[in-house]
Design goal:
Order of helices and strands: HH
Structural class: mainly alpha
Distance between the termini: 34 Å
Number of helices: 2
Number of domains: 1
Mean pLDDT: 78
Radius of gyration: 15 Å
Low-confidence stretches: none
Number of strands: 0
Strand content: under 5%
Largest sheet: none
Length: about 70
């Protein structure tokens, strides 16, 4: 039963991280499309790349071919 609780916690943390990543991606996309954000000026673009790398790694760990 302790493993089940750990699995639920891990799943919740992964979901929260996924929502955070999707939110940041959406924000960057919207700001870039409106011209209010410049790639060279924003540290969010470096964060976006790190999130992309993380998501790709997780997909590979889950058996997806990316």
């Amino acid at each position: 039963e302790e493993e089940d609780a750990s699995s639920v916690d891990s799943s919740y943390n992964n979901d929260a991280l996924l929502y955070l990543i999707l939110g940041v991606q959406s924000y960057i996309s919207e700001m870039s499309n409106t011209g209010l954000m410049n790639e060279q000026d924003s540290p969010l673009f470096e964060l976006q790349y790190k999130m992309y790398t993380y998501m790709k790694q997780r997909a590979c760990e889950m058996g997806f071919d990316v």
